[in-house]
């Protein structure tokens, strides 16, 4: 049986000299493992679509639960990522995250394939380290939402106030409390959100998918935001990612 899916290659393992297994992220079936016969041959029609981060329309033949790549039509490749080790490491972290967390059956409103493509695009286009941090934060927080872990950033959970010089984010409950309502003796974990950080987080969570990465914060704000979203994402998914440790180990600042 032949099936056609738009997908992005998020993992690749070599088999012998010429072929490989691909992990393809799809909206319809989550992650599909498919064999790409002869994909490494120089004259293979699959050569351009079988690389890591290739975004393509894949025609697959399905035999019971096994998939083989029949043909593929490339849509976009993010090969520029490969020329920057920091961006490549970040993309690898994104790939590991979707590989381990994307459910088999998709029921969410946002297309996870589109989200992943936008994440790679924004990482590829990032002009400076602070912007790359923001891309990472947007990925972690928006993807948490896509997995069903929505923080409630609409306003103070006690008085409903929308803005305050100090808003406190409680990562365990995912709520915000304003500086007037916050109990200063609170012993749990919390982060102080400046207005720019709260605005950035609201944008990531509530904007349409293609706008979720469109925000700007100061360099200092980006560093704090990154701590918040990392903590939130890892705590919710109850995982660690070797690719994340690698990314943090190699980056310059
Ligand atoms: Zn309040």
Description:
The chain has 253 residues and is α+β, with helices and mostly antiparallel strands. It has 2 domains: 2-77, Nucleic acid-binding proteins (OB fold (Dihydrolipoamide Acetyltransferase, E2P)); 80-250, Up-down Bundle (de novo design (two linked rop proteins)). It has 6 helices and 9 strands; from the N terminus they run βββββαααββββααα. The protein has helices at residues 85-101, 112-125, 129-146, 195-206, 219-237, 242-250; strands at residues 2-15, 19-26, 30-36, 54-63, 66-77, 152-156, 167-170, 175-178, 191-193. The strands form 2 sheets. It has a 5-stranded mixed barrel with strand order 1-2-3-5-4. The protein has a 4-stranded mixed sheet with strand order 6-8-7-9, covered by helices on one side. A hairpin with a 3-residue loop joins strand 1 (2-15) and strand 2. It starts with a strand and ends with a helix. Bound molecules: zinc ion (ZN). Zinc ion is lined by residues 156, 158-159, 161, 178, 180-181.
Summarize this structure as a short list of keywords or feature phrases.
253 residues; alpha+beta; OB fold (Dihydrolipoamide Acetyltransferase, E2P); de novo design (two linked rop proteins); 5-stranded mixed beta barrel; 4-stranded mixed beta sheet; 9 strands; 35% helix; 26% strand; elongated; binds zinc ion
Summarize, please.
By secondary structure, the chain is an alpha+beta fold. The protein contains 6 helices and 9 strands.
């Amino acid at each position: 049986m032949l099936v056609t899916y738009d997908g992005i290659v998020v993992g690749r393992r070599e088999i012998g000299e010429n072929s490989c297994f691909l992990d393809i992220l799809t909206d319809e079936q989550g992650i599909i493992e498919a064999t790409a016969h002869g994909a490494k041959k120089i004259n293979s029609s699959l050569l351009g679509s079988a690389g890591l981060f290739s975004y393509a329309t894949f025609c697959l033949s399905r035999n019971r639960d096994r998939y083989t790549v029949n043909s593929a039509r490339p849509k976009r490749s993010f090969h520029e990522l490969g020329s920057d080790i920091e961006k490549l490491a970040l993309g690898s972290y994104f790939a590991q995250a979707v590989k381990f967390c994307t459910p088999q059956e998709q029921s969410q409103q946002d297309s996870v394939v589109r989200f992943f493509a936008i994440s790679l695009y924004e990482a590829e286009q990032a002009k400076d380290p602070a912007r790359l941090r923001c891309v990472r934060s947007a990925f972690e927080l928006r993807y948490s939402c896509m997995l069903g872990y929505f923080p409630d950033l609409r306003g103070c959970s006690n008085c409903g106030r929308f803005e305050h010089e100090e808003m406190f984010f409680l990562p365990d409950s995912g709520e915000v409390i304003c500086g007037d309502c916050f109990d200063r003796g609170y012993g749990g974990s919390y982060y102080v959100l400046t207005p720019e950080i709260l605005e950035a987080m609201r944008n990531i969570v509530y904007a349409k998918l293609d706008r979720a990465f469109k925000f700007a914060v100061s360099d200092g704000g980006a560093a704090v935001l990154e701590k918040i979203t990392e903590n939130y994402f890892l705590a919710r998914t109850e995982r660690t990612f070797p690719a994340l440790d690698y990314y943090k180990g190699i980056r310059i600042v």
